[in-house]
Design goal:
- By secondary structure, this protein is α/β, with parallel strands linked by helices.
- The chain has nine helices and eight strands.
- The chain has an eight-stranded mixed β-sheet, sandwiched between helices.
- β7 and β8 form a beta hairpin.
């Protein structure tokens, strides 16, 4: 099992910290000494996860705070609370997401649910928290993507899938957008001379509730697997599946703009992954960043 380097004295926000890779990352970062802010949509579930982690890691420093990435007002309120408190923030782990709801749904702000929750919400949160991150020691933003980004396309003319909604295509677009956000932030950091590391990760084929929670949105009769479930393919548990994200978030060897995942793509120890061809457009990251700024009304503050 990957050993998380010492995180004593570091303050870390993990979104989606109540389940799956988010909860596993939270537990292991806290076990390594970090003070972890568990950013969750449902505080009751966050508190239940906190208690579960404390039973395994009694010395864990954890606090639960609410943020709904599908509601930009909630994102702003969460960030404002942290900014007003003024305590340093060393790491932001953009982990939370929703996967393949069967019918097109929208966020509170009217964006397609996966594009809004998986990309625009974390994008706004990252921009809003940059002042705290840049005021801290060795700041880092680690963003969870997915192997599905390989199949993604940024549909500039219909980002919200208003015309022909396809759950898997919308999900792939959102995870490609996550990857582009991470690499573009790395470029911005280098251009501005910031000491900010921006990394990305994917979990391979990790068994979590993500595969059933999204596909069951709006269903009266829940399904136990999503359409196209690849049950014959190699898969791994959440303990190993969280390790690329942990490496991206905490390892001193992580590189600027790098992408980490399992050695055998679906399973295995963490290695540096090649960026998919879908993420290599010359100006694609910058173009998407500009669009996201307009959609979320969030920009990098001029004072940083």
């Amino acid at each position: 099992m990957y050993q998380v380097p010492d995180q004593t004295g570091r303050r870390i926000v993990v979104t989606g910290a109540n389940s799956g890779t988010g909860k596993e990352a939270t537990k292991r970062l806290a076990d390594a000494g970090a003070h972890v802010i568990m950013a969750v949509r449902t505080p009751e579930k966050g508190e239940a996860a906190r208690q579960e982690i404390l039973r395994e890691v009694p010395h864990a420093k954890l606090e639960v705070r609410r943020v709904d990435l599908a509601d930009l007002d909630s994102v702003r309120a969460f960030a404002t609370e942290l900014l007003d408190e003024g305590a340093p923030l060393n790491v932001l782990v953009n982990n939370a997401g929703v996967m393949m709801p069967p019918r097109r749904a929208t966020t509170k702000d009217g964006f397609e649910l996966q594009f809004g929750s998986n990309f625009l919400g974390p994008f706004a949160l990252t921009n809003l928290l940059l002042p705290l991150l840049l005021d801290s020691a060795a700041p880092r933003v680690a963003t969870m993507s997915s192997g599905m980004a390989n199949h993604g396309r940024i549909r500039i003319k219909d980002l919200q899938f208003a015309g022909n909604y396809r759950a898997s295509a919308a999900y792939a677009q959102s995870k490609l957008a996550n990857l582009l956000m991470a690499t573009e932030l790395a470029k911005i950091s280098d251009e501005r001379g910031w000491d900010l590391l921006s990394t990305a990760a994917h979990p391979g084929y990790t068994r979590t509730n993500l595969q059933t929670a999204g596909p069951n949105l709006g269903r009266e009769k829940p399904r136990t697997a999503f359409r196209g479930d690849f049950t014959l393919l190699p898969s791994q548990g959440v303990q190993q599946g969280a390790e690329p994200l942990l490496f991206a978030a905490a390892d001193p060897a992580a590189e600027q703009g790098a992408y980490y995942g399992p050695r055998r793509w679906l399973v295995g120890p963490t290695v540096k992954s090649a960026l998919p061809h879908t993420a290599r457009g010359v100006d694609l990251g910058a173009s998407l960043w500009s669009i996201a700024e307009d959609l979320t009304k969030s920009t990098i503050p001029t004072r940083v």
